[in-house]
Amino acid sequence: MQQNKIKHINSLNEETKSQTLILPIIKNKDFSVDLLDMNANRLLIDTMLNEDISTNGEITVLHTPKSLFPNFNYLRIFCIGLGLIEESNLSSVRKSGGSLGRYFLNSKIEEANIFIDSLNLFDNEELIESFIEGFFLGNYSFDKYKNKKSKSDNFFEITSTDSKLAIKNITTKSYEKSEAEKNARNLVNEPANYLTPSKLADISSTISNKKLKCNILDKNECKKLGMNAFLGVSQGSIEEPKLIHLSYKPLPNENSFWYIGKAITFDSGGLSLKPSGSMFSMKGDMGGSAAVISAINAIANLGLMVNIDVLCLATENMPSGSAQRPSDVVEAMDGTYIEVENTDAEGRLTLADAITYAKTFDPKFIIDVATLTGAASIGLGKGNISAFSNNEKFMKNVKNAGEKSGDHVWQLPLDSVSKKQNNSTIADIKNTGGRLAGSITAAHFINHFVGEIPWVHLDIAANSMTSSNDGWHNKGATGIPTRLLIELAYIFEK
């Protein structure tokens, strides 16, 4: 897992560590950029006249050897196409950046200067931010368990000759957001024999500091709180369950926004055992916790003036002689009796107690993130995150954050007809509503414990992992929706 390092310089003539220049190319009649070398400028202009090097995601390499370009600091120029200026947006620019970042994974080049003056044509700092962000996200691999690593540490310079551009702020924000999402990917890509509930708790403790506080509760402490829905899921595993609570509170007299992440570090389905083919990717059933933990760390690093609390109830869901049975009834922390119809509908049980715990702190708003239902992928595919809410104002904020981060959100209804599917004949509620409207009935179940607190539920089961390279996501964990949560904190800050 290589690390990226960045430096900001204000002129291409300044001392540079790199021999590679990266130049975003926009298809626009007013496109111009000064490379501060007559021959390099001529090469670029002639190439643009004779070739289409502005196609979105297209990479063209122009070689500028010292024998022909003695006054130019770079041996090569990487031109990356951003497409037509009128069709460009945050996601398309980020996607081009991702393609270039992934290209660098397979090259021997480890140092480059990203010259962003051409992006100023948009007069939009967010587009610059998105391109840099995409580049860092595409430049990712998980090779921790390979003896032959993909690449050593990378060094990137970010250059702009525009003195009015807050380049340091832009690149710092891009870097923190992309590093946060890559940290979330690392957690999801970890094998479950390494990333146990205890290890996830240890990692959370490690990132705590003066600004970011961490509190870990063990099984006995959770039992005293009455978290029987959570502990019922954990009782089939030899791994100890952990409650992980991270707090970032720069505003001492204000209540917090709460980010809750599902943290099933391995989901076998319990006694309602999954088929083996469906179980292989279940190390990633803690994708929600990976996102919220990584997001609050970045929010603290960026120094945003908004109070955020993160909560993850971490456990495995395993079959054994002590495992929870289908037809068991458990009393949740808020006193609700739950009939466990299916032990593979375990995530919502942990979220029930998590939400009740959060409510004791009088939250302003709760957003829960969970790899919750296979029905989410059947309903919406991989292009949108399934979302549910009891508050349209906050739902709009989440959608806006998703538009900016590229983690697009689509709201589904909480209708009265599907709600009845969770009715139980022997308890207050049951944990499944059958095959029909599976994502909706899961959200109804969670909403039962939310009450009147403004709330959004994001079901990321379809989006947490990808089987191929796509845009700024590389095969494996995507880290979704880490950057959405960071953007949401910026909205709350306002």
Summarize the structure.
The chain is of the alpha/beta class and 494 residues long. The chain has helices spanning 38-50, 90-105, 125-138, 167-189, 197-206, 219-224, 228-234, 276-279, 287-302, 347-359, 375-380, 392-405, 416-419, 438-450, 482-493, and strands spanning 4-9, 20-27, 59-63, 76-84, 111-115, 154-159, 212-217, 242-248, 257-261, 263-267, 308-317, 329-331, 337-339, 365-370, 385-389, 409-411, 429-430, 455-459, 465-466, 476-477.
- What is the architecture of the largest domain at the second tier of CATH? 3-Layer(aba) Sandwich
- Range of helix content: 25-40%
CATH superfamily of the largest domain: Zn peptidases
Tell me about the biggest sheet? 9 strands, mixed
- Strand content is 15-25%
**Gap between N and C termini:** 35 Å
Total number of strands: 20
Mean model confidence by pLDDT:
93
Indicate the structural class. Answer: alpha/beta
In the residues, how many domains can be counted? 2
Shape: elongated
Query: According to CATH, what is the class of the largest domain?
Result: Alpha Beta
Number of helices: 15
